Amino acid sequence: MNLSDSQAYAAFRDTMRRFASDKVAPYAAAVDREKRPPIEAFEASLALGLPGLPYPESLGGQDGDMLSQCIMIEELSRVCASTALTVSSCWILMAVMDYGTEAQQREIVPQITRGEARCAWGLTEPKGGSDLMGATTRAVRDGSGWVLDGTKRFITNGGWAEWYLIFARTTEKRFGLFLVHKNDPGVSFGAPERKMGMRGSPTSDVILDAVKLPADRLLGDPERGAEYITQALLRSRLHIASHALGIAAGALEETLRYTGEREQFGKPIARFQMVRSMVADMAIRVESARATLHRAVSLYQAGDPQAKMLASIAKVLCSDAAMAVTTDAVQLHGGYGYLEDYAVERMMRDAKVTQIWEGTNQIQRLMIAKDVYDVPA
Ligand SMILES: Cc1cc2nc3c(=O)[nH]c(=O)nc-3n(C[C@H](O)[C@H](O)[C@H](O)COP(=O)(O)OP(=O)(O)OC[C@H]3O[C@@H](n4cnc5c(N)ncnc54)[C@H](O)[C@@H]3O)c2cc1C
Predict the structure, then answer these.
(1) 354 and 247 co-located in one domain
(2) Where does the record place the Acyl-CoA dehydrogenase/oxidase C-terminal domain (predicted)?
């Protein structure tokens, strides 16, 4: 797919919106209620090649650029944040395209694009997520290969994914990235976490107990994992911002519909000034978050170093928008907003984690401040 002009992006957004409404929305409440992966929507996404969107066509992907990736995530998240997360998790192993050997790419990527393998990454540990460089999972050389020991916590797709990108300490101060398969001896999983939201996305510990890996499971240089993961986090920050933006946009849409239909004092509540003012604020948050996100995406696509700071700003704006807009959406649904029967209840629960994961919003602010100070006024 070559999306080179805005018309093509608009057409792609339309396709994604139709797909979301026909194939994703019908299962959104059920996967949340039943706390199970969105299998039907995931399988339907394969027919459009979405798990392979960013991968090269030569390996079964679609060569979709960052803007198309963000549009897909936003449109799916509007109706089901768990499905958007499940499909976009398949893109974690783009790190193999960046740092892997051709043999690694040829072995792993087609499994993903054909829908035979799902992906996860393990950065966070029981003792911390914010202090990534404090990770204690170890990778020790064993002949030409490696042995991994440690526990990764809160891993999206834990137990459900086939491939895990694991961040592990290889020397006192350096880290490497390793490709661990679900069936590797010594790999096990904790019980599924019982979560506030994102209930259609499994989360669990990934436990590595003397996991022996051959040399070809190391990605790139064993001492440059921190640099690689920083780059991978930049990409995923744009994805996560799009995910939060989609939740906010979906909640706004639900609110427009509901306030137009619900009547009090003999007229639709959409006619009351205070309601209109809240809806205007919701729209301001959604539109300004999207504008910032798209600026970050265009800087990223241009290879501009400012993309890093803008990606953090977009992550904060989009996730804060998701939390504020979904909370107001529940408010504007009155008592019905508090019931599971209305999508905004799920959206508000799903929104919260977007402020927490992929570097909490406090950590993003620390990074933004550092970048602001680094740029001469
Ligand atoms: C549903 C879910 C899915 C997840 N999926 C994954 C995954 O797939 N892979 C993965 O590796 N991780 C995953 N995570 C983990 C997530 O990235 C971490 O929870 C997050 O980075 C925060 O780490 P922590 O929970 O250890 O909190 P902590 O780091 O302990 O932070 C606790 C609080 O202290 C604040 N804080 C910490 N340090 C500072 C500081 N220097 N200045 C100011 N405030 C600070 C934080 O902002 C936060 O509010 C997931 C988490 C959840 C909930």
Answers:
(1) yes
(2) 224-372
